[in-house]
Amino acid sequence: MPSSLRRTALALLCALAPALACGSADEVDEAEAAGRAPAPAAEDAADDYLAAEDEPAAEPSEPELPASQLPFTALATIAAADPARCSATLRDDGDGTILTLHTGDSLGDDARIEAIERGRIVIRRGDRLEALALPRAAVRLDDPLASWSEEPDADDPGVLVRGVQLGPGSHYAIKTPNHAWGERAVVQGIQRAITLYSRRARGGPKIHVGDLSLRGGGHFPPHLSHRSGRDVDVGYVLKGPQADDLRFRDADRNNLDVARTWALLESFIAAGPVRIIFVDYRIQRLLYDHAREAGVDEDRLAALLQYPRGEHFPGGVIRHFRGHRNHFHARYGPALAGASAAATPTPTPTPSATPPAGDDDDEG
Ligand SMILES: [Zn+2]
To answer: What's the 162 CA to ligand 1 centre distance in angstroms?
Structure first.
């Protein structure tokens, strides 16, 4: 009787998401039928790691089936006599989405769930059956793929239908104008952000705007996203000899103008409609130290920055993603739930400027 396996599965369900309705009547029934109290909530799932334990994944009486090569990882199964009450929780390894599926559900073109058993999912592909078992190794659920990545969001159309081109401006330089097409609201948001920034942080180098999208959008190598005019790369504000170099340069504590960069990021968020901004975690640390020193309160820091809660923590408009040491990447779209406090403009004074009072209310 793989009770520890079942406990792991229940703890895993508790750890996943409120939407998975931990403690539902089904689950309690099942635990009571097994003569035990329901498993406690996620205590077993310490440190974001969930281990499938060293026990056979399936009852010994079940027939051996070839292991499925489909790109899914089984995370939990709930088996019941009635197939309608069975469910399986899987991670789509392609994009990190976590799904709860039932008997009969599709897993792609030629695959569907034939049955859900304790510890394994039986999949039918054409006329053959294969099995996806709970893995024995730990499954890391805080992988950035499970929350955000530089890949397009699920609601990204992949093309840019009525795009507009970001034109020249007095406070910024565009690296490649042919790569500077975006949705109108995005282009206007960028312009508002840089105008706001230039009023807050007078002086300093021009802002370096990198790629948005191609005219018409679509696949834009080497970017994973930047397909639909909702993404823009922007250089950090640097000091010293690299400050006016249009090429993106790695930033660190020696060359980053941290006060101006913080003002720039605050301006992008205040000008909206920014969904998320990717900034390397080490740079987040420099920004955090600066902002704290400048008197930004903890609630606002937590709304703006993922730091210091770990580079996989799913909070803060500004998040870590690899490849963002020499520029940040702003993705436009409706704000994330819980991030609204971040959009309240309470500009942090920069050493060289007295910020004007709320001046970002020109809707576009
Ligand atoms: Zn980018």
So the answer is: 21
| Separation of CA 223 and ligand 1 centre (Å) | 6
Q: Compute, in angstroms, the gap from residue 248 CA to the centroid of ligand 1.
A: 12
CATH number of 164-343: 3.30.1380.10
Rg (CA), the chain: 24
- Please give the model's pTM, rounded to 2 decimal places: 0.56
- Going from the Cα of 233 to the center of ligand 1, the distance in angstroms, rounded, reads 5
Instruction: For residues 281 and 49, give the distance between their C-alpha atoms in angstroms, rounded to a whole number.
Output: 21
Q: Distance, CA 184 to ligand 1 centroid (Å)?
A: 18
Taking only the tens place, the pLDDT of each residue in 135-172 is 877 766 644 433 444 566 777 788 898 899 999 999 99
Three-class secondary structure of residue 17 per DSSP: coil
Query: What is the CATH architecture of 3-144?
Result: Roll (2.30)
Q: Output the CA 190–ligand 1 centroid distance in Å.
A: 14
Rounded Cα gap, residues 141 and 307, in angstroms: 19
**Residue 329 to residues 139, 227, 231, 236, 265, Cα–Cα distance (Å):** 29, 13, 7, 10, 10
d(CA 322, CA 281): 9
Question: How many A from CA of 347 to the centre of ligand 1?
Answer: 25
Q: How does residue 336 score in pLDDT terms, banded at 50, 70 and 90?
A: low
Instruction: Note whether 260 and 286 are within 8 A (CB).
Output: no
Range(s) of the chain covered by CATH 3.30.1380.10: 164-343
Which residues are in the CB-under-5-Å shell of ion ligand 1? Answer: 233, 329
Q: How far is residue 349's CA from residue 327's CA, in Å, rounded to a whole number? A: 23
What are the two backbone dihedrals, phi and then psi, of residue 336, each rounded to the nearest 5 degrees?
-70, 150
Every domain range in the chain assigned CATH 2.30.30.830: 3-144
Asked whether the CA dihedral 332, 334, 339, 341 is positive or negative, the reply is positive
Coil/strand/helix, residue 307:
coil
Ligand 1 centroid from CA 31, angstroms: 47
